[in-house]
Amino acid sequence: MSTVSRAADRIESVPFLTRDDASLLLVLPGLFVFSAFMLFPVLYLLGISFTNAEPANLFAGEGIVAVLTFGDALFVGLENYADVLTDGQFWNSFGVTWLFVATSVTLKIGASLAIALIVTSDLVRGKRVLRSLIIFPMGLPPIFTITVWRGIFSSAEFGLMNQLLTAFGVSSVAWLSGRWTAFVAYNVTEAWLAYPFMVIITVSALQDVPEELHEAAVVDGAGFLARFAHITLPSIKRPVLFASILTSAASFQQFLIPFVFNQGGPARANELIVVYGYREALSFQQYGRGAAISIIALVFIGAFMWLNVKKGKLADGVND
Q1: Is the peptide bond before 266 cis (omega within 30 degrees of 0)?
Q2: How far apart are CA 150 and CA 143, in angstroms?
Q3: Do 210 and 151 lie in a common domain?
Q4: Dihedral sign for Cα atoms in the order 307, 308, 312, 313
Q5: For the domain that residue 244 is a member of, what is the CATH number?
Q6: Cα–Cα distance measured from residue 114 to residue 107, given in angstroms and rounded to the nearest whole number
Q7: Residue 34 belongs to domain spanning
Q8: Are residues 246 and 129 in the same domain?
Q9: Where are the alpha helices (DSSP H) in 86-219?
């Protein structure tokens, strides 16, 4: 008998408790942790979004109770949401964020698929060493990696990227001073941060593709591209789609890259939506407005993930 079953039997032996009640009691600790660290912050953020909260009134009272009840902040209804949705900077951030998601995820899928095909090829030796090197970036703190990439894309002549351009006879570029050059730098750095995860998922999916299918296709005269399009891609589609949805959510919430590189510049042109919410809340001291931005972002990313899971049929068989 398992430990969980024995625990359930002991709880069930308590008067007035059925087995269903015992099962509920077993999940209560996990439910409490989830509520404390996930549900409560979201509900508190939602509450602040309906107030004119700022440092002067949110922390006006004394003690934790005053903060939990929003201090002297006043209820303003949907005013923060109306202000945000009529702000041109919000729509700029919203559009740039989704463009960043689309371009970075495309880059991540392409790069990880190419790397995964290489490390699973029979022509490659030392696959275990290669796989270890590929996942090495996952062990580095993101802030460290992003800072290194900021140096690589430095606008100065000694920046690594500019040195490479100079070696090929191309003049140096002020990478972080131009809108689209900075956007390119964001994408490359985001791809570097996420590709180990994508490669792990893709390699696992490739290893599950039956070798018999490839052998039969070779006998029929199918080349590499034909086998890739008609055997490999359909076989790995769902795992790669699942990984893409997760990394899309990560790209949507990206804060460190634009903030460390140039704080969403130049002139807030590349300000992703999380950076926009941060600036409104902490730089401009508008907590209520910043909370409204976060709630709007949460709704959109939640809808995006739900739609992709449903359309991709990734939840098929869960109820079984």
Answers
A1: yes
A2: 10
A3: yes
A4: negative
A5: 1.10.3720.10
A6: 11
A7: 2-68
A8: yes
A9: 88-119, 127-135, 142-152, 160-167, 179-207, 211-219
Decide: 186 and 261 in contact? Cβ < 8 Å.
yes
Residue 299's identity, in one-letter code, is V
Q: Are 171 and 277 found together in one domain?
A: yes
Distance of CA 313 to the CA centre of its chain: 21
Amino acid residing at 247? T
Question: Are the C-beta atoms of residues 213 and 231 closer than 8 Å to each other?
Answer: yes
* 312 in a structural domain: no
Tell whether 64 is covered by a domain: yes
The alpha-helical segments, DSSP class H, found in 208-286 are 211-219, 224-227, 233-252, 256-262, 273-278
Residues 113, 37 share a domain: no
| Cβ proximity of 157 and 171 under 8 Å | no
**H-helix or E-strand containing 35?**
none
Query: Which tokens sit at 303?
Result: 């809808």
Per-residue pLDDT of 211-222, as tens digits, reads: 888 778 888 777
pTM reported for the whole predicted model:
0.84
Of the pLDDT bands very low, low, confident and very high (cuts 50, 70, 90), residue 64 is confident
d(CA 146, CA 26): 42
- Please give the radius of gyration of the chain, using alpha carbons only, rounded to the nearest integer: 25
Comparing C-alpha atoms, which of 253, 304, 248 is closest to residue 278?
A: 253
